[in-house]
Amino acid sequence: MAVATHCPYCALQCGITLDAGTTPVGLSGRNFETNGGALCRKGYSAAQLLEHPERLHSPLERGADGVLHPVSWERALDLVVHQVRAVQQAHGKDAVAVFGSGSLTNEKAYQLGKFARLALGTSRIDYNGRFCMSSAAAAGNKAFGLDRGLPFPLADLDRAGTILLLGSNVADTMPPFVRHLESARENGGLIVSDPRRSATAELADTHVQPAPGTDLQLLLGLAHVLLAEDLADTEYLDARTWGLESLRISLASWWPERVQSLTGVPASVIRQTARTLASAAQAARSGGKPVYILTGRGVEQHANGTATVSAAINLALLLGLPGTLAGGFGTITGQGNGQGGREHGQKADQLPGYRKITDPAARRHVAGVWGVDPDIIPGPGIPAAQLLATLGEPGGARMLLMHGSNPVISSPNANRTAAALRRLDYLVVSDFFLSETAAQADLVLPVLQWAEEEGTMTNLEGRVLRRRAALAPPPGVRSELWLLAELAARLQAPTVFNADPREVFAELGRASAGGIADYSGVDYTSLDAGAAVYWPCPAGTPISTAPGERSGTPRLFLERFAHPDGRARLEPVYPQPAAVDDADLRPGTISLVTGRLLEHYQSGTQTRRVAELQQAAPAALAQIHPDTALARGISDGQEVVLENSHGRVEATACLDAGIRLDTVFLPFHFPETQNANLLTGDAVDPDSSMPEFKHAPVLLSRLERHE
Amino acid sequence: MSERLVIIGFGPVAASLVEGLLPAVRSKDLHLTVLGAEERAAYNRVLLAEVAIGAAKPEHLGMADESRLRAAGVDLRLGTTATGVDRARRVVHTSGGAVPYDRLVFATGARPVIPSLAGLNFDPHADSTLPAGVLALRTLDDALQLHSVLRGGGKVLVLGGGILGLEAALAMASAGFEPVLVHHGPAPLGRVVDADGGTLLIRQLEAAGVQVLSGVRATGVQKKDGRFHALATDTHGLIHADALLVSTGVRPRTELAEGCGLAAGSGIPVNEQLMADSSGRLFAVGDCAEVAGRRPAGLLAPGWAQAGWLADFLLSHPAPHPSAPAPDLGCLPGPQAQGGEILMLKGQGLELTAAGTVQAGLFDDPKQQVTVYADPASGRYLKIMARDGLPTGFMALGLPRTGAELALGFERGTALPVDPSLLLRLDAPFEDAQAPAAGADDQLCRCSGATYGQVAHAVQAGCSTVEEVGANCRAGTGCGGCKERIEELLRLPAQA
């Protein structure tokens, strides 16, 4: 029987149809608004994950022999409970930590947060979205008082005349997104900023190629020109924002010639780009084609990621775009449920509904829904990178429950993360394959895959989608909702944990009611009937199931921004005087940027197990400029070494004149000696705790094999 | 008790230092007093020419947010002139009373050099009163004066072939005024251009609307009714104009430092750690500082690098204890002496980026790598000098992207490409030529991985639309970027 659901991978959540009646399971593109029936290679081949021979079918316990052995669920649950009790008795509640994921359904993300706070009584919960959306989220909250990746439906881009895309390679990461760039491309208005001539930059009418780590300066230069040449929309700024004068002062020192000497982008290009944006925005305000500014991980995954997104938002505000029909600002969420994952309480500082855990009113409300005393909800925990780095150390957690994440590959400074996991007293990993992180666990719990579970996902535009079960799970596999409910009961949690997704969603709705991300007006019945619902959607909001109609809040901020006074904030950005890293100045050092390939998703746990994808991209290729290679005696296809103080990676050279001379690119999907995150460092953003993934100084050389 | 730090001067470099110190001011670990002689907080001198031509508003030049700094706890005293420093008692005397300090930073900047021409008062230490119609372009008042001259339709002579004079002249030309640039060398920017580059630069300046008079030896100014009337020269006789913009360099303001016993050279002498004496309490940054014997650059970037370094230093090293000797910091690296000073010039149809020196000829020094590209008809000229692969100087005229990349590399000390002509291609007006014809095994559709062969096969099997091809082999069903390539294959005549 054919079931309408969504692709398991990225935040575009392309509509697909699964037919479990055929062997192998049939998968085809479905005419859904974000993908219009299109799929990428990852999506087309996703069904190969379903009856995969490497699928885990039984809990695995590491025996005295150091090997993982199958055990019963009964024993597995008892082991977890026993370990939680022992560790907490000896080291306190916070000695047990939970690590979640932007790939979990809303229901699981919500339940995980509740489980940590009530069943474990720990403050130590955070998730891999910290490595993904946290900088954009922090900047969005500061500027608008609310963070939803795209505050407008993706389809709004279909009318765009101009799109400035900063650090995002959608042509590889979410190919069907490119269909929404068509209008801007036809208009000659796609501007892409990327140190690489990426597949997306290839599509651009203008490709701006700043040196890695200088996106912030480029944006300050663009904003400087808007103010210096009187191109900003002062009427809009007066009516809808605060802070123009402070912003103006902060931008005074970023004239284009100075920015040129820092970014490598010519002053004339900076001026021209600013003028192009300004005239397009002016035309858009009088009924022309809209103008959008969109950011991706390329500019966000830096130690100044929040400041960089603030600078991009400032640019959009100066152009008078956000909260109008003339365009807007958005960030392109990456993980499948990267949006919902950051709303329901698996973040260290958050309760469901995007509420602050430190806000007494928020604690009272959520405690009311949970039927507990607000005082038993722990306070804020610590962000992901810190949570992982301190594992097994004094003050750090000693036991970790990992759900839907593979930080051995995906966290920065992977050597350090692997060492931290080894310091743990006990590591429990829930996954459906033996990921590199699961392979280090003391206990592995086999859980449901996407096509076996019911639930909801919130896509990159803040639309709530139904994920549907198309086939029965293999025997021995359990849902994480069941697992959390069983553990909570055994741990004598002070409240009930439901295992039914529909019930959990209804509870999540009540817990979110009145919060920023209010889901209380959304239910499975209307979603199943085809309603297109965007949060916030408070209880009582009329929901339409008519095709083509949108419910909830498809477009945010049209009347007011989410700050109490309704105005957006221009956030002056003062880059700290460049902390010159000595390693950066060493002769011969070049900049490593990490990123994604079309064929793989995140840590590759899934896509490296799909033959078609693995065949197409079997190993890490280091993209190097031919001249940079020549200077190091490297030829195409040769083995190379990249190294710095954090680690060493081996890869195969792929010469490409489309990358800057001072830059080398590595995908981060591959394990062991090819793991790009062996080279990324410990620096994190002061606001968001986002690690610096996109810039690391490395030395590049030919791999010398010694006999 | 928190440390008392006093900064004398509130220009852009001081503002950057204050920014770096702000966390400690907020946490009350530092009591920071800033003395600014002007009534205005730090402002952007780079835009003064824009103000003069009416393209920028004076009120938009601010570089420091007065209210933000005050809210953070900075004791900001504008319109307060420092009159003396008592090093023994550690007090700065000012027009508004005495200010005690634990550590003191001179950020007094520089003032324009007024050349010794007959008719101009020459006093190196005075903010001299110039005759009407003679002005420098250092303060906002100067810019407003120039603005009123220009608005009155006046003709302006710019004296001096340095970067600031050129910028002012180009700004005026861009607004439709007709400035005349007068300088004494063979070409403006003497040290950073070579003979051919200089000739082309003059040609480009003229094309941008700046009349250039080279090799001029000025001797005096002639006044009429007390106003500037003409520049007297040995070489070109009298050159008449309504105003003379003097742009012959700047001189550090050192009198305060000298007054308290610090010897002045070409600035306030400081060591690599920016210290002006052995007490560990006196520092100097920016245009007033002669760091380890190096003459101040007169550019902002080195000053900002010093400010960033000094902020870190002050926050991480507490003031010396009154009774203890100053710690020996001889081995502590000072602010990074960056690759060097980079000059950038903009104007209509004129883009110049240059650094270092490029005057040596192609064969002057066998150890010097020299690269030259010249296309004067299109206004393009490139010369790169390098030693051991590292650039020691370059000039890029009419080649914006090349210039930008060279500047970045020069700043960071990156090696030149093995093949420097690569840099030129960055400014190619079009993309590389089409890729060679694709073979059957080459990928046509990135999203699905479908090859040209597979699509051709689908066409032969009877598919006649992009959709049918997609249904057959998935090509074109992802991002849609290969639609045109599929359409091309559909248009090919059917194979027999």
From TrEMBL, chain A:
It is an enzyme of class 1 (oxidoreductase). Keywords: 4Fe-4S, Iron, Iron-sulfur, Metal-binding, Oxidoreductase. Its EC number is 1.7.99.4. SMART domains: Molybdop_Fe4S4 (SM00926). CDD domains: MopB_CT_Fdh-Nap-like. Residues 1-52 form the 4Fe-4S Mo/W bis-MGD-type domain. The keyword Oxidoreductase applies. It holds the Pfam family Molybdopterin. SUPFAM superfamilies: ADC-like, Formate dehydrogenase/DMSO reductase, domains 1-3. PANTHER family: NADH-QUINONE OXIDOREDUCTASE SUBUNIT G, RESPIRATORY NITRATE REDUCTASE. This is Assimilatory nitrate reductase catalytic subunit. It comes from Glutamicibacter protophormiae.
Automatic annotation (TrEMBL), chain B:
Transmembrane segments: none annotated. InterPro entries: BFD-like_2Fe2S-bd_dom (IPR007419), BFD-like_2Fe2S-bd_dom_sf (IPR041854), FAD/NAD-bd_sf (IPR036188), FAD/NAD-binding_dom (IPR023753), NasD-like (IPR052034). It is an enzyme of class 1 (oxidoreductase). SUPFAM superfamilies: FAD/NAD(P)-binding domain (SSF51905). Pathway: Nitrogen metabolism; nitrate reduction (assimilation). Its cofactor is siroheme; [4Fe-4S] cluster. Residues 445-490 form the BFD-like [2Fe-2S]-binding domain. GO terms for molecular function: oxidoreductase activity. Belongs to the nitrite and sulfite reductase 4Fe-4S domain family. Residues 4-293 form the FAD/NAD(P)-binding domain. This is Assimilatory nitrate reductase electron transfer subunit. Keywords: Heme, Iron, Iron-sulfur, Metal-binding, Oxidoreductase. It comes from the Bacteria. Signal peptide: none annotated. Pfam families: Fer2_BFD (PF04324), Pyr_redox_2 (PF07992). Its EC number is 1.7.99.4.
